[in-house]
């Protein structure tokens, strides 16, 4: 081996603590980058492959009555390649338990194979005959349904018995949710079944279809095709025309993948920047320490470039090893991560690839980061004059530090504290870096604590503070006040209000959004509307209250006139005034006076649901009422949420370890660096009679001051991060709002301190081992 | 007539220290013949280290010239100076300045690797009497041994001139004598030109030529017709 490389190898060996520290940050950064971005690509590829395999539709139409001939009429015109009409009904699964109210979407399918949205058979056979049924996999698993089993459905008030012929997945229900208002999937409570088309039409008594799925030739022109369909299908009572991007399951998947891509691009950069600064600091210290050696190398004839290359190899080795290890571990983990995601999303195929280009990019990225920061650290090599470097470096000019001007403070300090402050002020860059690392660690910890708490807060706020009903009962179709009377007769209730919930396409200029608008009684007791400042709102007689995420989506504010287009056939769009923007943690909605909704859009006094507060077991007592489609209790939602918390704990653990590691590694390596550089100073102190513990305490005091400053800076940064996350993670499904609590801040600080103390304890071993006397004798560079 | 390997002509070096101009060297002129053992003698601050640094291409003069084998090195670019140091010059420093993480032999090999025609490493190690210590790290060796490694490192390049800056300055008398003997042996064996700078006047007795300096100028150049063996020197 070339002797300069041998020296490099031994230099790495001698600084292995710091080397491993910076390497671990690089590995972590590259690992997160590769694992998360590969998972995002895997998920997208898997999803795309699945869509291609199953010929997933581009447009989804809901209408009152569509004729079968529509397929032929549409195909070949206006960018439409294929069209398939179908019948979709929301029915009930009959179980032994009366309390269960299991909604099932029965969708008609062709006997053998569908043109569009083909089913992916996981078990059993695709071909269907009468009384045979295909059950969607998530629902089948959750309810223990298998092929050959018998299931009973309540369709139009009559019980129908079916034999399960197959368990299948559908590209339409990768993320199985009943509708946008259901915030979390509950596979036990909602499922999809597929019944042979003619048979479903027969038993449902419907001559017409109510849905069409369409594939287009060119998705770029999908908006034009949608407009065409909206006009053309008016005569069939078209209610809703949405494209693939708006389709609920696909939309949720895309949100998830976009979120992953965001994480893959932001978190690793933080790690790489810190690794870069750390590497630059480390190398600049090494070069400073090697000043004479560098002078000798120059004196014996090594060129500047050769010497720079020698030290850059140190940085490059970190970059290459970190890049290779990080991307290999990341690639290996991405398969498992994608698999983990697929447990939440039902995609029957898994396209996991090794992205060699990604590994290459990771290694190059890591190499560039390290070499650039390395060069930043060692650029002073060029200035080293061989003749000058042989002479001992003149001591730094002693001068008063800023703090010394504050006499009252300074005079009260003990000698050792004065030394601590002088050291900090003389090594500003290094100590600022330590403070920055602690600051980032603390803020990331705060963000993690907040994320963990906010999800719970979000649910509690939504289901306790914002919505106050114990039961939300949905009716099948619209009803007048008589249905309310029927419900009231069946249960003892504390309070009850009828409601109407209708989907609208709301438009404001070029912005539009399809959301459910809820019509409520003027003095509703079931909702507590407040704006971000906590100001209370009541339902206005006229106009609409909109949730803040809807306001953002529409770019609308109080006083604006927005257009509400109903999906009811033949209804005209109407303008209403925004009377207020309210905060809502979960979901995206508009709220109007129930009378105003009826007056504006329905012309009669009707409801399609009821909110109830009751001590009765509402589910059991209302079971016999035919018109009831769904009964959702707060308890159900809380139960579903608890299932989520397991995953959240894992996420929180990983985030705590990653953020803690950043602070730990930087503090550990910087302290090691201090010990190595100040051996002579410490030796002198030892000669003067200082004990090892006293010297260690001095180091701890320096880090403590910077840690305190770091934590103090970390708190506002953490708060800013929390606010930023609130803006970033603002989706149709949830709005992460609310400030971080003092308890969460304290928890974050405690965790940060634990990592800081651990790093300090690790360095104590190094102090113990140092031979101070040898350092005094040594004159070897 | 002996071959002139290096000529120093009217060399001067000034440093600006605030408003004061410090004349480290002033109008220094002398010649070095091939194979000569030269001692530049002077007290601390007389400019001898500055002179050595300029001769070795580590520093540039304010005026005058240094001509090495008909090439004016004082006009060299930084890159040319590096090549000059790499192939023509061997340095021995007062504090040895070995690479702490390389063994004795590796320290020598380090420079041999960058030279066109290096000497045989084992032979050089033998010449400095360190064949049995080749695998020791500097921290495992005495000052004298480290200095011998430094001489081996300088000699291994097969340099035309060996420039030694106070090579015995950090050593005790006996070790110092031993180092001087090694330098003399190298001078004889490899026919290297050796220039030693020192403030220790007895060392001048072993030189072929003694250049005395004071306050940046040469006060006297003495041709020593009867240089004595290093073993006979005492201080």
Can you put this structure into words, describing what you see?
The complex is a heterodimer of chains A (781) and B (235). In chain A, 53% of the residues lie in helices and 20% in strands. Chain A is built from 23 helices and 22 strands. In chain A, the strands form four sheets. In chain A, strands 3-4-9-6-8-7 form a six-stranded mixed β-barrel. Chain A has a six-stranded mixed β-barrel with strand order 13-14-20-17-19-18. In chain A, a hairpin with a 2-residue loop joins β13 and β14. In chain A, α1 packs across α9. The radius of gyration of chain A is 33 Å and the shape is elongated. In chain A, 44% of the residues are buried. Chain B is α/β, with parallel strands linked by helices and 235 residues long. Chain B has one domain: Rossmann fold (3-Layer(aba) Sandwich), CATH 3.40.50.300. Chain B has helices at residues 48-55, 78-87, 104-112, 121-127, 143-155, 173-189; strands spanning 4-17, 20-33, 37-41, 63-68, 71-72, 89-92, 161-165, 193-198, 209-214, 217-223. In chain B, the strands form two sheets. Chain B has a six-stranded mixed β-sheet with strand order 6-7-8-3-9-10, with helices on both faces. In chain B, strands 2-1-4-5 form a four-stranded antiparallel β-sheet, covered by helices on one side. In chain B, β1 (4-17) and β2 form a beta hairpin. The radius of gyration of chain B is 17 Å and the shape is globular. Classes of the chains: A alpha+beta (781), B alpha/beta (235).
């Amino acid at each position: 081996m070339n002797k300069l490389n041998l020296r490099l190898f031994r230099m790495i060996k001698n600084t292995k603590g710091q080397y491993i520290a910076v390497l671990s940050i690089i590995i972590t950064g590259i690992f997160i980058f590769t694992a998360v971005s590969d998972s995002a690509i895997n998920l997208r590829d898997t999803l795309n492959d699945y869509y291609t395999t199953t010929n997933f539709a581009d447009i989804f139409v809901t209408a009152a009555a569509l004729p079968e001939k529509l397929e032929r009429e549409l195909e070949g015109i206006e960018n439409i390649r294929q069209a398939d009409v179908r019948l979709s009904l929301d029915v009930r699964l009959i179980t032994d338990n009366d309390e269960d109210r299991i909604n099932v979407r029965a969708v008609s399918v062709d006997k053998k194979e569908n043109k569009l949205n083909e089913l992916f058979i996981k078990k059993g056979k695709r071909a269907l005959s009468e009384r045979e049924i295909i059950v969607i996999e998530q629902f089948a698993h959750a309810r223990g349904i298998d092929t050959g089993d018998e299931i009973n459905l309540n369709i139009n008030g009559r019980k129908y018995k079916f034999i399960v012929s197959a368990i299948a997945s559908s590209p339409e229900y990768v993320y199985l949710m009943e509708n946008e208002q259901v915030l979390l999937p509950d596979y036990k409570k909602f499922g999809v079944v597929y019944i042979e088309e003619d048979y479903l039409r027969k038993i449902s008594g419907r001559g017409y279809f109510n849905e069409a799925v369409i594939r287009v030739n060119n998705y770029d022109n999908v908006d034009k095709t949608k407009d065409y369909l909206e006009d053309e299908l008016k005569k069939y009572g078209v209610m809703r025309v949405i494209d693939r991007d708006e389709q609920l399951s696909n939309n949720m998947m895309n949100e998830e993948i976009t979120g992953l891509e965001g994480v893959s691009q932001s978190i690793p950069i933080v790690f790489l920047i810190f690794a870069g600064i750390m590497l630059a600091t480390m190398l600049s210290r090494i070069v400073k320490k090697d000043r004479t050696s560098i002078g000798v190398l120059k004196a014996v004839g090594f060129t500047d470039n050769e010497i720079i290359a020698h030290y850059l190899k140190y940085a490059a080795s970190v970059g290459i090893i970190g890049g290779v290890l990080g991307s290999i571990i990341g690639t290996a983990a991405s398969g498992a991560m994608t698999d983990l995601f697929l447990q939440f999303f039902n995609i029957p195929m898994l396209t996991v690839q090794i992205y060699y280009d990604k590994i290459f990019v990771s290694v190059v990225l890591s190499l560039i980061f390290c070499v650039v920061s390395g060069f930043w650290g060692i650029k002073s090599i060029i200035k080293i004059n061989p003749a000058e470097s042989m002479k001992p470096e003149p001591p730094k000019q002693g001068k008063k530090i800023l703090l010394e001007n504050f006499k009252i403070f300074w005079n009260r300090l003990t000698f050792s504290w004065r030394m601590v402050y002088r050291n900090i002020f003389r090594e500003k860059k290094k100590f600022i870096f330590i403070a920055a690392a602690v600051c980032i660690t603390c803020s990331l910890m705060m963000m993690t604590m907040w994320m963990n708490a906010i999800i719970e807060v979000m649910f509690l706020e939504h289901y306790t503070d914002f919505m106050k009903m114990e039961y939300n009962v949905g009716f099948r179709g619209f009803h007048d006040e008589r249905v309310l009377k029927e419900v009231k007769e069946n249960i003892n209730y504390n309070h009850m209000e009828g409601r109407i919930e209708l989907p609208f396409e709301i438009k404001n200029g070029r912005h539009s959004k399809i959301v459910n608008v809820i019509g409520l009684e003027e003095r509703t007791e079931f909702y507590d509307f407040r704006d971000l400042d906590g100001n209370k709102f009541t339902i206005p007689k006229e106009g609409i209250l909109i949730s803040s995420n809807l306001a953002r989506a529409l770019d609308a504010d109080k006083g604006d006139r927005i257009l509400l287009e109903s999906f009811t056939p033949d209804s005209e769009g109407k303008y209403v005034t925004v009377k207020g923007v309210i905060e809502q943690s979960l979901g995206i909605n508009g709220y109007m006076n129930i009378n105003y909704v009826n007056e504006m859009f329905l012309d009669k006094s009707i409801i399609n649901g009821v909110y109830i507060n009751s001590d009765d077991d509402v589910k059991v007592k209302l079971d016999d009422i035919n018109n009831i489609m769904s009964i959702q209790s707060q308890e159900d939602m809380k139960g579903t949420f608890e299932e989520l918390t397991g995953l959240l704990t894992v996420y929180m653990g990983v985030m705590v370890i990653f953020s803690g590691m950043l602070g730990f590694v930087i503090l550990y390596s910087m302290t090691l660096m201090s010990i190595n550089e100040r051996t002579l100073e410490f030796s002198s102190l030892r000669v003067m009679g200082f004990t090892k513990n006293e010297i260690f305490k001095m180091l701890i005091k320096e880090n403590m001051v910077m840690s305190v400053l770091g934590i103090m800076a970390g708190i506002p940064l953490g708060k800013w991060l929390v606010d930023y996350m609130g803006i970033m993670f603002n989706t149709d499904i949830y709005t992460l709002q609310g400030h971080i609590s003092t308890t969460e801040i304290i928890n974050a600080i405690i965790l940060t301190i634990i990592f800081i103390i651990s790093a300090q304890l690790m360095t104590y071993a190094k102090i113990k081992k140092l031979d101070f006397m040898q350092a005094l004798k040594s004159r070897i560079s | 007539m002996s071959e002139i390997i290096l000529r120093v002509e009217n060399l001067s070096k000034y440093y600006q220290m605030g408003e004061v101009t410090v004349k480290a060297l002033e109008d220094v002129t002398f010649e070095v013949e091939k194979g000569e053992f030269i001692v530049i003698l002077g007290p601390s601050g007389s400019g001898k280290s500055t002179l050595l640094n300029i001769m070795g291409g580590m520093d540039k003069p304010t005026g005058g010239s240094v001509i090495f084998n008909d090439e004016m090195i004082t006009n060299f670019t930084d890159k040319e100076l590096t090549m000059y140091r790499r192939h023509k010059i061997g340095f021995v420093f007062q504090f040895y300045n070995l690479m702490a993480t390389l063994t004795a032999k590796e320290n020598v090999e380090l420079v041999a690797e960058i030279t066109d025609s290096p000497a045989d490493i084992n032979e050089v190690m033998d010449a400095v009497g360190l064949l049995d210590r080749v695998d020791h790290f500097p921290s495992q060796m005495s000052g004298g041994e480290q200095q011998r490694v430094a001489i081996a490192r300088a000699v291994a390049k097969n340099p035309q001139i060996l420039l030694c800056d106070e090579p015995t300055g950090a050593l005790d008398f006996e070790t110092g004598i031993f180092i001087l003997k090694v330098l003399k042996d190298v001078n004889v064996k490899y026919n290297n030109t050796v220039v030693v700078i020192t403030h220790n006047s007895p060392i001048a007795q072993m030189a072929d030529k003694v250049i005395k300096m004071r306050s940046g100028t040469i006060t006297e150049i003495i041709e020593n017709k009867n240089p004595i063996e290093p073993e006979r020197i005492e201080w």
